[in-house]
Design brief:
Layout: H1 5-9, H2 12-43, H3 46-54, H4 60-66, H5 70-73, H6 76-95, H7 101-130, H8 134-161, H9 167-188, H10 202-215, H11 217-233, H12 235-238, H13 240-247, H14 250-275, H15 278-291, H16 305-317, H17 321-332, H18 338-367, H19 369-394, H20 402-412, H21 414-419
Helix pairs in contact: 2-3, 2-7, 2-8, 2-9, 4-7, 4-18, 6-7, 6-9, 7-8, 7-18, 8-14, 8-17, 11-17, 11-18, 11-19, 13-14, 14-16, 15-17, 15-19, 18-19
C-alpha cells in the first residue's frame, strides 16, 4: 500500500524530529553566514572567510569515521541531545568577545566533527520511529526537502538578518536554535536502548563498524551510489559565479543559477514521494541515477541563461533516485550497525561534495566553467552507469543476510569485480 507524506506527519515523534531538523538547519545556515562575515571583519582576508565554509566539509570524514561508534553504543536520544548541546556550546564560544581567529576556526571544525554523528544517529532513529519501510523513505525525503529548501531561502534570510544585527548577535540566534532542537528531541521522542557497539575504545569500535559495513558488497555499492552522483552534481553550483559572469547574467542570473538545482531536486522528490508507488520508485532508481547528470552535457552547446536553468532543473529532478536507494540501504544494513552505517553515509556524502567543489575549481581554472560542467556530466554519467550495473548485479543477493551474501560473492569472485583487488 502506498504511503503519503501526510501519514508521516501523523507520527508524533516524527513531527518532533522534523521540527528539530528545521531548527538546527536554520542555526547552521545562520552560523555559517555570520561566522564567515565575522572572520572577514577580523582579518580582512577573503581566504580565511572562505575557509570557514570549507571547514564545514573537511572534518566530516574524521568525525564520521572515528566517532561513528557513538551512534550505536549509546541510546539514540541521548546522542542527539548531547550533539545539539555540544553544538550550542561551540557556537556560544564563538560569541565570546575577543575570541581569536584560531579559536573561531577550531570551534567551526568541532561543529563539523559532531554533525555526521548527529545526522547518522537521526537517520537511524527514523527507522526506529517510522519502521524500515515506505514511511522511512518518505520521512528521509521530507528531511532532504527541508534541507534543499533551506538553500533557496536560508542564505538570503541570513544575509538580511546581518543587516539588522551584528555577526556575534546572529550567532546567539544559532545557540538558541540548537537548544530548542535539543529540547524538542528530548521531550518529543521516547527513549530507546542502545543498539550496542562492538565494545572497547570508541575509535576502534567506529573503525570496526566501518569495516563491517564496507565488507558487504551490496552496501558498498549503495554507499557509492549515494556519494558519487552528488560529487559531480555540485559542479554547476560551485562554478555558478564564473559561469554567470561569462553569460553576463549579473547577480540576478547568479541567484537563479544557484536556485535551479535545489528547485529541481525538491520538485523531483515531492513528485516521486507523493505520486509513485514504492515499487515504482525502486524500479526507476537505477535508470534515474544513470541519467541524472546527462543534462550537464547541454553546457557544451553554449546555452544562454534560460536553457542553463532548464538543464539544472531537469538534472535536479533526477535526484529522486535517492528514494529508491533509501529503501535498499536500510534493508541492506543490519540493525546493530545501522547508526554507524548512516553516519558513514553522511560523512562520505559531505566529504565528496567538498572534494567535487574543489576539483570543479581546478578544472575550471584550466578549461573554463562551461567545459568543467560538461566534463562533470560525461565522467559522472559513466561512473553512475557503472555503479548502477554493479547495484543491479548485487540485487540478486539483496534479500539474504550479509554473511550469506559475502560467502556467495567470494565464491563468484564478485568482490574483485568491484574493488579491482
Amino acid at each position: 500500500m502506498q504511503q503519503r507524506y501526510t501519514q508521516v506527519f501523523a507520527v508524533p515523534e516524527f513531527r518532533a524530529v522534523f521540527a528539530a531538523h528545521a531548527l538546527s538547519l536554520l542555526g547552521v545556515i545562520v552560523s555559517e553566514i555570520a561566522l564567515s562575515v565575522l572572520v572577514y571583519d577580523l582579518t580582512a582576508s577573503p581566504l580565511l572567510s572562505a575557509l570557514t565554509f570549507a571547514l564545514g566539509f573537511l572534518p566530516y570524514v574524521v568525525g564520521g569515521t572515528l566517532l561513528a561508534g557513538l551512534a550505536d553504543r549509546f541510546p539514540a536520544r541521548r546522542v542527539l541531545v548531547v550533539c545539539d548541546l555540544v553544538c550550542a556550546v561551540c557556537v556560544a564560544g564563538m560569541v565570546a568577545p575577543g575570541a581569536h581567529i584560531g579559536v573561531l576556526l577550531a570551534l567551526r571544525c568541532a561543529l563539523a566533527l559532531v554533525s555526521p554523528v548527529f545526522q547518522g544517529t537521526r537517520m537511524a532513529t527514523l527507522a526506529d520511529i517510522l519502521g524500515d519501510g515506505d514511511l522511512f523513505v518518505l520521512g528521509r525525503s521530507l528531511l532532504r526537502i527541508v534541507s534543499q529548501s533551506a538553500l533557496l531561502v536560508g542564505y538570503g534570510l541570513g544575509g538580511l538578518l546581518l543587516t539588522v544585527v551584528s555577526p556575534r548577535h546572529a550567532l546567539l540566534i544559532t545557540v538558541a536554535t540548537f537548544l530548542a532542537s535539543a529540547a524538542l528531541l528530548r521531550l518529543g521522542t521516547r527513549p530507546r536502548p542502545a543498539r550496542g557497539g562492538s565494545g572497547g575504545a570508541l575509535v576502534g569500535d567506529s573503525l570496526r563498524g566501518a569495516r563491517q559495513v564496507l565488507a558487504d558488497r551490496r552496501t558498498r555499492v549503495l554507499l557509492l551510489l549515494f556519494w558519487v552522483p552528488p560529487m559531480f552534481a555540485v559542479v554547476p553550483e560551485a562554478l555558478a559565479a564564473p559561469y554567470a559572469a561569462a553569460l553576463g547574467a549579473g547577480s540576478t542570473g547568479l541567484g537563479l543559477l544557484m536556485c535551479a538545482l535545489p528547485v529541481g531536486t525538491v520538485a523531483g522528490e515531492l513528485y516521486a514521494g507523493s505520486r509513485l508507488a514504492p515499487a515504482t520508485r525502486e524500479r526507476v532508481a537505477l535508470p534515474l541515477v544513470s541519467l541524472a547528470l546527462l543534462p550537464y552535457l547541454g553546457y557544451a552547446l553554449h546555452p544562454g541563461l534560460p536553457l542553463s536553468l532548464l538543464l539544472l532543473l531537469v538534472s535536479g529532478a533526477g535526484s529522486a533516485y535517492t528514494l529508491g536507494l533509501d529503501q535498499w540501504f536500510v534493508a541492506a544494513v543490519p540493525e546493530e550497525l545501522r547508526g554507524r552505517a548512516m553516519t558513514l553515509l553522511t560523512a562520505g556524502l559531505m566529504t565528496l561534495q567538498g572534494v567535487g567543489m574543489a576539483l570543479a575549481g581546478v578544472a575550471a581554472e584550466f578549461a573554463g566553467a562551461r567545459a568543467a560542467v560538461t566534463g562533470a556530466g560525461i565522467l559522472g554519467t559513466v561512473c553512475c552507469v557503472l555503479l548502477a550495473g554493479a547495484a543491479r548485479r548485487t540485487s540478486a543477493t539483496a534479500g539474504r543476510p550479509p554473511g550469506d551474501r559475502l560467502a556467495t560473492e567470494r565464491r563468484d569472485g564478485a568482490d574483485h569485480d568491484m574493488t579491482g583487488g
